[in-house]
Specification:
The complex is a heterodimer of chains A (about 400) and B (about 130). Chain A is α/β, with parallel strands linked by helices and about 400 residues long. Chain A contains 13 helices and eleven strands. Chain A has a domain of about 140 residues: Peroxisomal Thiolase, Chain A, domain 1. In chain A, about 30% of the residues lie in helices and about 15% in strands. In chain A, the strands form two sheets. Chain A has a nine-stranded mixed beta sheet with strand order 3-2-4-7-1-8-11-10-9. The longest helix of chain A is centred in the middle third of the chain and has 16 residues. Chain A is globular and about 50 Å long. The two termini of chain B are about 25 Å apart. The longest helix of chain B has 5 residues. The radius of gyration of chain B is 16 Å and the shape is globular. Chain B has a single domain, classed as OB fold (Dihydrolipoamide Acetyltransferase, E2P), CATH 2.40.50. In chain B, the strands form two sheets. Chain B has a five-stranded antiparallel beta sheet. In chain B, strands 1-2 form a two-stranded antiparallel ribbon. The mean pLDDT of chain B is about 95. Chain B has about 130 residues and is mostly beta strands. Helices cover about 5% and strands about 45% of the residues of chain B. The chains are: A alpha/beta (about 400), B mainly beta (about 130). The interface between A and B is large, with 43 and 35 residues.
Amino acid sequence: MSLFAEKNTAITGVGMSEVSRGATQSALALTVDAALEAIADAGLTRADIDGIATWPGERSDGSGFSPVGCAALQDALRLEVNWYAGGGEAPGQYGAVFNAIGAIAAGLCRNVLIFRTMYEATARKTAYANSLLREGQRQAGPFSWYAPYYTYAAALQQALFFNLYVHRSGITPEQVGQIAVNQRRNAALNPNAIYKTPITLDDYLAAPLIATPLRLYDCDVPIDGAAAIIVSRMDVACDLPNPPIRIEAIGSSMRYRNSWTQLDALDTQAQPKVAEMMWSRTDLKPADVDIAQLYDGFSYHTINWLENFGFCERYGAKDFIEDGTRIALDGQLPVNTGGGALSGGRLHAYGAVHEACTQLWGRAGARQVKGDPRVCATSTSGGPLAGAMLLVRD
Amino acid sequence: MIARTLPVIDRDNEAFWTWGRGGKLAIHRCGDCEYYVHPPAPFCPRCEGRNVAPQAVSGRGRVATFTINHKAWVPELPEQYILALVAIDEQDDVRIASNIVDCAAENITFDMPVEVLFEPVEDLWIPLFRPVQS
């Protein structure tokens, strides 16, 4: 298996800015905070960073979805790099990591700074809701097929897939609600989480419907914040202070129709083939996984990943998450241990990878999973976008 | 009801968004092997032919999946409306995003038979679907 380039890379440092529902700093300042923390955590200096990657790159549309790109961060930190890339056409948010692995394998870089910045909390104070649509402007690109039909939010579009999943799996709202309840319970132990007050299943059920079957607590929370990780070549990583968190395997495939309307598997979205690819690149099995940081833009994504990673059978997640014990911090497979995006804040999969490393390095304080977790499965998702990584600390 | 956001029109999607003027739903189809290609593209992925052009279909289909909106995302938006993916009768893997109209939210079901109708907006004719009337 030594031919797979990810096996020659490791995460060597992580950083996260203050995460809030309304920042007092600029998006660039948050990004700099996260980047400097990650560089220092890895035992490196700015001069050691020779690559930068982000997803989806700078979007100057006022949405706050990705207000800082490679160029702005590079210039702010005056980094001198051999390679950089930021762009949205990739297998989900971890596309930036997969690109960095390629750059390292190509001999371009030794230490790549990867980051994701969100400024959606501030953006939504000045714009209508979180609308995908712009008043008076015609819509181009893949969402143009949805534009005339009042598809104002990702919640509506994604609810199409989730409702079919409910129809086919028979999952109940009481079962789905375990995801939100579990993550809020974990967030209560995470000083950096946005929402720390525990919720009950009754709270979940009493919250408003957004778009059938999505309820309020199924949706992640827009924030201002930034997360950064350093991915290093393995020989470099071995000389750095943190035990290397090896990227044991990745899933980056897209073997379905790459379309938000024609995607082959509507109820599972693009995840199954991605998970299959990840497992094909490692000898490890689902039973070897200690913790899981699964994408939770919506709670249903997490439910989908439990099945697609093989932690349970297709349409078996409803039994797996029943009563919430298996996915709890002291359960068989602790899931989204820092509260995830639902309660921790929407750092869009980079909160998940930050939490994965925090747990694997044993730094998670009150929420630290017992038993010295060493293997974490993590994922990104949403329609045709999906990516997966298996992270291992030896 | 507030204005619908319209798509940018190009040579590939023009028929889809304008043939409603004549009461027709246009879907691209391969002239050689008769495979429907949607979203419209100038290539048939089944026979590799380039003879692909818009053709009128029956306008009938089934609700492949749906959601009922409950939130007023913008002022004046009615809170309850149905967003769906409709699979056309001619080829089940051709799915069209649309609103289901003339249908109460409590009556929408998976696989419900629906038929097209059109709403003119500016220079376009937006395909909508309603439960089959007959």
